[in-house]
């Protein structure tokens, strides 16, 4: 379902290794090829009127009247995952990640002769977002119907399924997709600042308006758009995207009002509470923590923001694997487990949305874990696979588990009655 979003994250990782091909090291050429194929995938997912210089020659023009029946031009953008729906939420995340990859590894992309293609891939997405933002408080966030589209396997050039377009506005808010779109436009604005300053200004104008819309009219987008709920439900809520959008606007503008926004809302929105191994189209907390940790690393973050940025850095260091502890010692705040979160079911009961979350915790510290205490915050329903302790929000091994060997996994399942996912972090552990 989320191949476009996954491919975008892969770009940021692959390009770090692709650079070595510029030094004529044969061992690295495969990484450059993998990065090239990631960009090729994006090109194959393009919707709309394709340019003559495209490299994916078997693709042709498609969906040339998207939005027309509803009085708006929504031609362009990216299809989602081999199907023909344009889901704005993962599409915006994909563009954000592409832009972040360019910002971090621009020189390496130049060396791998891939920068121009990466810029084209970003612009293809941002041009669509500009079209989709038809009024300050209106954003078109989906074209196509997932159910009917997935019943028919056909070429995009020959599609016959409905192209209904859906939007969010003040009466039907969608803070997740709006804030993620603002992040995508802000990140792209920073990318294009040195290549096309007028275009960067245009991107920033839309980014600021869309972020204000997301923050002013708060609400879950999958409550406003039932057509998106089945395919991209917002398990983590919209608070992470609001922090993410503000962080990228600060990165793109240097305007401390955005940094102040993150600092003021970090605790209430969960930005300093999440310590997990997940970073995805749905959950942006780790991204916020890593992105704003750079402010400290660059020597900034004095004064009112220092404490918040230090908390972000601590969470970022949890997210990025680092020092592995020796066996037999007691650790507090370490990172022995790799958490993988997934929403495995959802339903509605008495007007309340319920989500079943499955969390797989894998022992990655290299030693058996003989004692474990997890802090689990924000639960609104039952939890299985761990045992409650006398301490509030603290959980340990279930009665049938006495140790977790290296590489073994512990499965935790919980039911959440609406709202964001619970926050799970390691409080203490012991190896032996």
TrEMBL record:
The keyword Signal does not apply. Keywords: Carbohydrate metabolism, Cellulose degradation, Glycosidase, Hydrolase, Polysaccharide degradation, Secreted. Residues 337-419 form the Carbohydrate binding domain. GO terms for molecular function: carbohydrate binding; cellulase activity. Its main location: secreted. Belongs to the glycosyl hydrolase 9 (cellulase E) family. This is cellulase. It comes from Aegilops tauschii.
